[in-house]
Q: What sequence folds into this?
């Protein structure tokens, strides 16, 4: 996966509302102007500020390793402490990157990358499904996932970047 150098949004995750209820909120993030690593970093930072732990799930281990590298180096003034599943001490990680369906770090927030399986959501307050709107396959898969979750009564929200790079609720 190649990252595109794009101006990051001014405040990509400042719109986070109060904690969810019994049903996990499932928020779709339609990326068009910022890279996956930029958006993931901002959302993970906000998640930790909230006092939550995060589980980042992808089906591609190489993508997780790339995201891991970027979480350590994305900003010269800070990094986000995290671990990869299988390295040990998963339960202690504030952010755990994994290809499995297990919530080994007791996370309240689940991040889905690369069309990975969503799985059960009852252990989470909020689930984030991030997809590249410039990729026709990813866009079609996200639309299909939205329809399926909508039909089952999912608590859904759809966020899209404005031309200025701000996140706007679109559905």
A:
């Amino acid at each position: 996966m190649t990252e595109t150098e794009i101006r990051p949004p001014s405040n990509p995750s400042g719109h986070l509302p109060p904690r969810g209820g019994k049903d996990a909120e499932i928020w779709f993030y339609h990326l068009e102007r910022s890279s996956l690593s930029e958006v993931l970093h901002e959302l993970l930072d906000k998640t930790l500020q909230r006092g939550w732990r995060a589980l980042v799930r992808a089906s591609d281990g190489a993508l997780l390793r790339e995201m891991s590298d970027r979480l350590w180096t994305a900003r010269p003034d800070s990094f986000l402490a995290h671990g990869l599943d299988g390295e040990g001490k998963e339960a202690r990680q504030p952010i755990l990157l994994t290809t499995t369906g297990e919530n080994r770090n007791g996370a309240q927030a689940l991040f889905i990358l690369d069309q990975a399986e969503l799985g059960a959501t009852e252990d989470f307050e909020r689930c984030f499904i991030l997809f590249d709107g410039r990729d026709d396959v990813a866009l079609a898969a996200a639309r299909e996932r939205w329809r399926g979750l909508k039909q089952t009564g999912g608590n859904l929200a759809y966020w899209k970047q404005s031309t200025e790079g701000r996140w706007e609720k679109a559905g």
